[in-house]
Amino acid sequence: MSARTLPTVLLVDDDLALLEGLRRRLRRSFDVHLAADGEAALAALRTLPQCSVVVADMLMPGMKGTELLARVRELNPDVVRVLLTGYADVDAAIAAVNHAGTFRFLCKPCRASELRDTLEDAVRQHELVIAERELLEQTLRGTIRALSEALALSHPKAFAHTVRRAEIVSLLVADLPDAEKWSIDVAAMLADVGVVTLPPEVVDKLYGGNPLTPHEQAMVDRLPVIATRLLGPIPRLDRVLEILRYQERRYDGADGAEGPVGDAIPLGARVLKLARDVEEIESSGGWSCVESIELVRRRTGAYDVALVEKLAGAREAEGRSRLMEVDLGALDDVPFGSVLARDLVTLDGILLAARGQPVTAGMRDRLGNWPTRVPLREPMLVSIPLDSSVDALPA
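-> structure tokens emitted (395 positions)
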């Protein structure tokens, strides 16, 4: 039977003797770490991703306890914060609660038993916060997955464009922190969710490169508004909605629309506009990757130039792939990470899956419901990354 893992707490005070005394009294209940000032505490916290609670003294050299706890909140908002001070200062308590989201405010001298009880309450609060966040994230991931699957099943051409755009976005956000990257990735996948409200004939014209009537174009122009309305009730999508709101905004503001300009435009919106337009150029005009980059370079002021050059560099470093024709009945042998290199259409004109869609378990299940004897207009053509395992594929 493995030993119980003790919750990690970080105590911060310039009185080292006091800290050592507290550690001796608390070590049976907590994994106690010590820091003598704010900078040392922040450095320690970066090495303690599992930390549950930070207890900081109000008066310390260099950085006050309230400032430290505010920075702890920025670094890891899940950590529960407790302020300890040698005087009952109401202003300090208000600052601690308002600016650092402090869980509790204790006055020195503080009995070890009182601190232990506070730490136990704080650890329980941390466990509740983590459990709630994980539940929300799982629910959110499931909702996004369901919306994406619905788009894939109802409008495979639209979903194929979404997938290709998301691949471009992933190149542009690869070096961002996970929290920022996540919201941009989600925006890229859900940007076209409003397409489900369009009549099928309009969708076919839109993604087939055919001209739209003024009425049809008006419906298409409303898609970003519809997307934000559909996604609005889902919790924790505030950043995603902001990205979708400005996804058509020109970098120089020359589109005449109200809103931010230049770097004031949310990064995700700048990324999404570039990815959307590059994907549209390559899909509708048959331009190569190199040609599409050159075309967007010529649209002076439309895009963040740094992002354009970043995309150009990332595409030069992309891995290569090879094309292979595969029988519909052998789709299970195609490795994940492969994509369809052309539309999968029956002789009757039924689109089973569109070019650019990745080979996923959902695609396998859907196509598995079609008899293998259904004649296709052309054999299935897939693009397989060269580093994939293709041993099971026919030579």
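Strands lie at 8-12, 31-35, 51-57, 80-85, 104-107, 321-326, 339-340, 344-345, 351-353, 380-385.
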